[in-house]
């Protein structure tokens, strides 16, 4: 206020504006003010206003004049605070940015001409970063073929084309309907959203991968992975693109195990996967054996996030590479060192199991027949013993160990049984088998499955992996039994005994998942969700088609089974649109099934073990060519009210002729 008062009482002669305000006849009656009210003197004008010699309101970060003109505003030097500090790192950071920019340009140029060693330069830039997964990205814009492969690999496994025909719709299986239009792989919007992880966190994730996912797919040799890829990567050394991809995808797989319950691990999963995706081009350009490893790791990630990876395309590439390297032939091992020979066997049988899983889950042909395979199974030894055969092993009392390949070898055996069931009953060729032949096939395979379950490995130490628990082996057994007895191309209309096997196994499967969940041992995957959903639908389908089966159960028991399945679906997945679709289907079909039971009691009296063939021919079997050719399908008529939910379900593509596929992927 004092300064304003002094300014008001200054003489006109002392005012700088007075020289331009010479009195005239008009100015004597109406004096002109020295400046406009509201603009304080002493405001430092921005650079633009200073050059144009116009008044500036000094607003930050953009003054009013520059804002109106829509231009950038550079504040005056008077607003800049100069900090003279010896610890200022601006110059060092500028030099680092210039170095990384030059390195990125050279790597991009190398990729554009098809140089497969470009990943090394990218990895060295990553080593200078403080976060293991915040490396400069390299886009493969220069190589059109690489772009096509990368884009194809990172497409959703289940997607519906806007131009799909009615025939295409009939070929879509039930898992396709659950995941149709959904994207599970949420990507970070910018680098600012990247979550940093400490070295301790990364070490814990790597150990979690080898404890939880490695027993199912021993793709990597742990000592080699640590020495060749992980340790140099964490030390910031210059590593190849293969190392960059393998480390990041392993960390992403491990983080996905906890992403459903931990928001931080969900972000880490996304960030690691994005970093791995940026190195995918270098991984595909690597040697065949390394490329097969990388593709298998990508498939393992896709089993958790099927809408982030095209599983069918990825496993197809891996299988073609493996066959091209003759990994399926025993003669290929003759000239190899023991470690290399064992890893070749492991990789082939990992590709084999993944191909069986993906092909049968999608209802597509198998990639290789068992008759074409001569390579033996890998040895059931741990990675440490494989690296050093002279090393003394811990006392195991002659039983299997959680660190050896006993679990994997037992899974391979199951895949072979499942493949035989698939070829015998579910192939699209519609094998014309008589009823006695089908019964003999089912009895033979059922005996093999019972023997497989009885010989499942049992571990003294509590296993960290869900795939090494007794409950998981029972789940796998019950899924195989359901696939053996449910409607198939060879047997479109099931018998009462077959439906009873399906219902019993479906109920037991849900109970086993409940036991695993009670122990906090359920690993969320697309597989677990699909298995639970299809077990629920199979149980309800068997109850609807078999009056005798309804007589064995009560309304209260069936209602409890329905609620258990719906609750587990939500608990295992921790929410999500795909699981809500499954819960809605189970509950609606459940309400329709409960209407068939007398209030508070059992269902109608048994009908001599007969099944509702009219219902089975209406719903779920319209895609079977043999039935259409023989005119066995029921004529169209009004749908009973109890079957309206089933009709709506199958009209949207949930066919029992397709639903059996998904349970193979475990």
Automatic annotation (TrEMBL):
<feature type="region of interest" description="Disordered">
    <location>
        <begin position="120"/>
        <end position="144"/>
    </location>
</feature>
<dbReference type="InterPro" id="IPR001138">
    <property type="entry name" value="Zn2Cys6_DnaBD"/>
</dbReference>
<keyword id="KW-0804">Transcription</keyword>
<dbReference type="Pfam" id="PF04082">
    <property type="entry name" value="Fungal_trans"/>
</dbReference>
<dbReference type="GO" id="GO:0000981">
    <property type="term" value="F:DNA-binding transcription factor activity, RNA polymerase II-specific"/>
</dbReference>
<dbReference type="GO" id="GO:0005634">
    <property type="term" value="C:nucleus"/>
</dbReference>
<dbReference type="InterPro" id="IPR052202">
    <property type="entry name" value="Yeast_MetPath_Reg"/>
</dbReference>
<dbReference type="InterPro" id="IPR007219">
    <property type="entry name" value="XnlR_reg_dom"/>
</dbReference>
<keyword id="KW-0175">Coiled coil</keyword>
<keyword id="KW-0479">Metal-binding</keyword>
<keyword id="KW-0238">DNA-binding</keyword>
<dbReference type="GO" id="GO:0008270">
    <property type="term" value="F:zinc ion binding"/>
</dbReference>
<keyword id="KW-0805">Transcription regulation</keyword>
<feature type="region of interest" description="Disordered">
    <location>
        <begin position="1"/>
        <end position="41"/>
    </location>
</feature>
<keyword id="KW-0539">Nucleus</keyword>
<dbReference type="Pfam" id="PF00172">
    <property type="entry name" value="Zn_clus"/>
</dbReference>
<feature type="domain" description="Zn(2)-C6 fungal-type">
    <location>
        <begin position="45"/>
        <end position="74"/>
    </location>
</feature>
<dbReference type="GO" id="GO:0043565">
    <property type="term" value="F:sequence-specific DNA binding"/>
</dbReference>
<protein>
    <submittedName>
        <fullName>Pyrimidine pathway regulatory protein 1</fullName>
    </submittedName>
</protein>
<dbReference type="GO" id="GO:0006351">
    <property type="term" value="P:DNA-templated transcription"/>
</dbReference>
<keyword id="KW-0862">Zinc</keyword>
<dbReference type="InterPro" id="IPR036864">
    <property type="entry name" value="Zn2-C6_fun-type_DNA-bd_sf"/>
</dbReference>
<dbReference type="GO" id="GO:0045944">
    <property type="term" value="P:positive regulation of transcription by RNA polymerase II"/>
</dbReference>
<feature type="coiled-coil region">
    <location>
        <begin position="83"/>
        <end position="110"/>
    </location>
</feature>
């Amino acid at each position: 206020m004092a300064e304003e008062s002094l300014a008001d009482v200054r003489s006109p002669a002392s005012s700088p504006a007075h020289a331009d305000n010479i009195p005239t006849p008009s100015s004597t009656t109406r004096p002109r003010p020295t400046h406009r009210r509201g603009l304080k003197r002493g405001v430092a004008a921005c650079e633009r206003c200073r050059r144009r010699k116009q008044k500036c309101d000094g607003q930050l970060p953009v003054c009013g004049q520059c804002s109106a003109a829509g231009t950038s505003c550079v504040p005056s030097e008077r607003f800049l605070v100069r900090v003279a500090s010896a610890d200022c790192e601006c110059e060092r950071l500028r030099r680092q940015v210039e170095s990384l920019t030059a390195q990125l340009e050279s790597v991009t140029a190398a990729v554009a001409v098809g140089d497969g060693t470009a990943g090394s330069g990218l990895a060295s830039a990553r080593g200078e970063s403080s976060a293991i997964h915040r490396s400069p990205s390299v886009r493969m814009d220069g190589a059109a073929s690489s772009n096509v492969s990368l884009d194809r690999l990172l497409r959703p496994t289940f997607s519906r084309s806007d131009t799909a025909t009615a025939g295409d719709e009939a070929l879509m299986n039930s898992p396709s309907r659950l995941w149709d239009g959904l994207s599970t792989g949420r990507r970070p919007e910018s680098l600012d959203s990247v979550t940093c992880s400490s070295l301790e966190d990364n070490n814990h994730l790597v150990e979690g991968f080898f404890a939880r996912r490695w027993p199912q797919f021993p793709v990597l040799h742990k000592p080699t992975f640590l020495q060749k890829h992980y340790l140099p990567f964490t030390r910031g050394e210059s590593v190849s693109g293969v190392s960059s991809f393998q480390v990041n995808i392993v960390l992403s797989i491990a983080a996905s195990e906890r992403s459903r319950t931990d928001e931080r691990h969900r972000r880490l999963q996304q960030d690691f996967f994005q970093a791995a995706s940026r190195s995918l081009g270098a991984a595909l350009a690597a040697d065949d054996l390394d490329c097969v490893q990388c593709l298998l790791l990508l498939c393992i990630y896709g089993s958790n996030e099927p809408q982030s990876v095209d599983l069918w395309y990825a496993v197809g590439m891996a299988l073609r590479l493996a066959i091209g390297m003759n990994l399926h032939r025993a003669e290929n091992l003759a000239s190899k060192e023991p470690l290399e020979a064992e890893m070749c066997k492991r990789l082939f049988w990992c590709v084999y199991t993944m191909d069986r899983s993906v092909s049968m889950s999608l209802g597509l042909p198998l990639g290789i027949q068992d008759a074409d395979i001569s390579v033996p199974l890998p040895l059931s030894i741990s990675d440490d013993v494989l690296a050093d055969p002279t090393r003394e092993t811990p006392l195991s009392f002659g039983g299997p160990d959680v660190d050896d390949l006993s679990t994997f070898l037992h899974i391979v055996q199951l895949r072979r049984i499942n493949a035989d069931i698939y070829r015998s009953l579910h192939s699209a060729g519609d094998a014309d088998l008589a009823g006695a032949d089908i019964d003999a096939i089912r009895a033979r395979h059922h005996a093999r499955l019972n023997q497989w379950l009885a010989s499942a490995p049992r571990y003294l130490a509590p296993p960290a992996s869900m795939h090494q628990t007794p409950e998981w082996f029972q789940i796998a057994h019950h899924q195989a039994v359901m696939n053996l007895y449910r409607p198939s191309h060879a047997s479109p209309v099931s018998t009462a005994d077959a439906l009873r096997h399906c219902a019993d196994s479906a109920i037991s499967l849900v109970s086993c998942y409940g036991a695993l969940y009670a122990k906090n041992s359920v690993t969320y995957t697309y597989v677990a969700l699909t298995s639970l959903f299809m077990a629920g639908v199979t149980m309800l389908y068997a109850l609807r088609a078999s009056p005798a089966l309804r007589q064995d159960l009560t309304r209260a028991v069936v209602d409890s089974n329905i609620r258990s399945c719906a609750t587990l679906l939500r608990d295992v997945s921790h929410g999500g649109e795909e699981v809500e679709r499954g819960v809605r289907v189970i509950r609606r079909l459940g309400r329709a099934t409960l209407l068939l039971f007398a209030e508070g009691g059992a269902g109608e009296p048994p009908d001599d073990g007969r099944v509702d063939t009219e219902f089975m021919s209406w719903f779920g079997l319209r895609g079977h060519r043999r039935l259409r050719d023989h005119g066995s399908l029921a004529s169209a008529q009004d749908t009973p009210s109890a079957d309206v939910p089933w009709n709506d379900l199958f009209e949207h593509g949930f066919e029992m002729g397709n639903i059996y596929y998904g349970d193979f992927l475990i």
